[in-house]
Design brief:
Elements: H1 8-26, H2 28-35, H3 41-46, H4 63-80, H5 95-110, H6 123-155, H7 161-190, H8 194-212, H9 224-228, H10 245-258
Membrane topology: Multi-pass membrane protein
Subcellular location: Membrane
Organism: Neosartorya fischeri (strain ATCC 1020 / DSM 3700 / CBS 544.65 / FGSC A1164 / JCM 1740 / NRRL 181 / WB 181)
């Protein structure tokens, strides 16, 4: 409908259908986040739109599956014991959740507020811009393209995970609306000086990421409380998923079978 639209009206209607259906598919990132091997999670969530994933090689008796099911069950049970733990207001109730909230909001906005383009009508300028576009997108696609979904999906607790991802998307779309309506006005008003605004934004984004975005590599989803809430997971010392013998053993076995 969209590609063959004969009129602007039909094109806009097609965008409504594509947008609504696309929103359903975006929730697949949450499912992939919860099912992936702990040591594979970041890569799989980043690539969830373009690949299929069979968990634990299809082995229903896999020790890793049993371990993750137990972690998920315990996490859900503990969160069920907390009243009203799935409300939007809960996202601001604790220090850890406020930290997660800050990340979800800023990563959504920063994904769009990191560059602005304008036309000059000068061929030489257009030619010079081409290599810089490749440089820009090389850096952007290594970071924001995969992490815009992967990072918010893994930092939130089970009951708030979908809301955390939705919050990031809302902030992204609000930033897009700002870009569509405000950037052209600003460019007409102050011209090239508006680029200085975005340079300052990039500096602020860099400092914000450096100071407030913790490393989550190696932790299971249930162990994120150690990173954000400064408590011990399940009443004991949390062990990083990358250090779990069961994961290493399963991966070694799987690689041996393929050989």
């Amino acid at each position: 409908m969209q590609t063959a639209a004969p009129s602007p009206t039909l094109f806009i209607v097609s965008r409504v259908f594509v947008g609504r259906s696309g929103a359903w598919f975006q929730s697949a990132a949450i499912l992939v986040t919860e099912l992936a091997y702990p040591t594979h999670r970041s890569k799989l969530v980043a690539l969830y739109q373009c690949m299929y994933y069979y968990h634990a090689g299809g082995d229903e008796a896999s020790p890793l599956v049993a371990l993750q099911m137990q972690e998920i069950t315990d996490s859900i049970r503990q969160e069920d014991e907390m009243a009203n733990n799935a409300r939007w207001s809960q996202m601001l109730k604790t220090k850890g959740n406020r930290h997660r909230f800050h990340i979800s909001v800023t990563i959504g906005i920063a994904a769009q507020w990191n560059g602005v383009f304008n036309t000059t009508g000068v061929a030489a300028v257009g030619t010079a811009v081409i290599p810089f576009l490749f440089i820009y997108y090389a850096g952007y696609d290594l970071a924001y393209t995969p992490l815009l979904i992967a990072y918010p999906a893994e930092i939130w607790t089970y009951s708030l995970r979908s809301k955390g991802v939705a919050l990031t998307y809302m902030c992204t779309y609000l930033a897009l609306i700002f870009n569509q309506f405000i950037n052209p006005i600003a460019m007409d008003a102050i011209g090239w000086k508006y680029y200085v605004v975005y340079i300052c934004l990039l500096v602020v984004i860099l400092i914000n990421v450096w100071l407030t975005y913790p490393e989550t590599r190696g932790y299971s989803l249930e162990e994120m409380v150690v990173v954000f809430d400064e408590v011990e997971a399940d009443g004991g010392i949390a062990t990083k998923a990358s250090d779990m013998g069961v994961v290493s053993h399963l991966e070694d076995s799987h690689n041996t079978e393929k050989l």
